[in-house]
Predict the structure.
Amino acid sequence: MYGMKKLISLCGILLLVAGAVLTAKTIPGMEAEQKEQTVFASGDTVYFWYTDDALTDFLTNVSAAYYEESGNFVMPVLCSGLEYLEAVNDASVHPGEDTPQMPDLYVISNDSLEKAYLSGLATVVTDESGVCNTDTFPQIALDAVTYHGKYVAYPFYYETSAFLYNKTYMEEGEWAVPRTIDDILAFADVYDAPEQVEAVFKWVVSDIFYNYYVTGNYMIVGGEAGDDPALVDIDNEKTRECLHIYQNLNQFFSIDTKEETYDTVLQDFIDGKIVMTVATTGAVAKLEEAREAGLFPYEYGITVMPDLTADLKSRSLSVTNAIVVNGYSEKADIANDFAVFLTRNYADTLYEKTGKIASRYGVLYENRNVAEFMDEYENSISMPKMLGAGNFWIQLEICFSRIWKGEDVETLLSELAQQMEKQLGQDAS
């Protein structure tokens, strides 16, 4: 079902603590209270689960700093991402020798928050320090962790897509950065491309994460918080207009949906073969790595996704990874306190240590291009957290693919809307 990869020590003290815990588990008949007093006499201990190894060193350092400030231990536990929430549930509901230590708090993407909350694995955060506000986080981050009007997690870091362009090419021709898809088409018509350029604009057509901006401003799935099945509007006039424009792009930018992947497209950008693309937050690190290796001799820029036209606005999709306090934890006060400690005090080192971009405001980045993603994030729409919308992205991705290949927009959009209405228990109209 799942695998626990490793338990990470915070420092020499915590190594001893971990060893003591393992020893205590092997002593028959030792009472839980005795173990608690023996092993953790100097402070309480909470367990913090996560699935991305990129966070390991960062969490180790933050946990050590938290111990210095509070005297409480936070034990980061790296887990398998497979059936992760089920593993959290098993450890919380069915504790035992064959089950890992229950997490008091854990990291999860915002689209799983309804399932976590309804299962008792997430609870309303106390936020005694008042960090959950629009001075600290953009509204999109707060919406992402909101369930029926209450905050059920703390925003941690995010992923979204933005517009990546070759600044060297643009400046050589004194071209302005396109603000609409119409601008890109106009640019493509007259651009005198260098010999190595094979395409003006290419992106991963087969992945909805890089396509969603086309319909994101008009396709409503659960409202801003993504938690209201009554707020669903998929098949509407504006969405149809956007998808017709998307379909017509195939005439200008012939992209093989089977052959192109994000890695191949980004590599083409690094090689100077394309002028513009759609990229996620990890692109900056890859571009800088290529530059240091002497493989990327260009300047580049990142900005918000262009609108489709002057009248049809774009809106990208985003995922917010959040810190959840387990509803089964008996140490929720410490779990809440550590979550605030982490998001309030250590967001400024998150990108440097992990490559993840913090969801909060006020972080300064050495590379300005990293900060540009925040502008897109602020305007994005979160993945919905409704259980009934779990396979919506797969269905939408199929819908986009078929539209790209020339199938009827109205028919496909109507079928998608009816399917979602059925899944969410709404009457088809």
